[in-house]
Amino acid sequence: MNLDQIRIFVTIAETGSLGAAAKALFRTQPTLSVALKKLEEALGVQLFSRKAYRMSLTAAGKQLLRKAQYLLEQAREFENLGRYLSSGHEPELRVAFDPLIPIQPILHILKTFEQKYCQTQLTLV
Questions:
Q1: How do strand 56-57 and strand 48-49 relate by DSSP bridges?
Q2: Which residue ranges form the domains of the chain, and what is each CATH number?
Q3: Low-confidence ranges of the chain (pLDDT < 50)
């Protein structure tokens, strides 16, 4: 099982057919069929019912679709974080301040920082 097979599964489910998924992914229908079959074999469950003209998700397919969509979102976030860090941004910023300093200006600066550099972990000491 791999991320590409999961992406194919989600695209088929979201578009409603192999043909529409093939167009969306710029692949051929047989390529998607093979990938879907391999995914079903790896999982040991049938994801789609093929009894009717249109493919429909099985009960297991519906449950796995939610997890697959979540997994793809996590993969996108992972990729984005990698790009962010490779562009020279720091992974973490540690800030120490004295409690005698007025907190309001610091909070404003931290909020601005968080909005601009949301993927950098900010640690306050």
A1: antiparallel
A2: 3-86 (1.10.10.10), 92-124 (no CATH)
A3: none
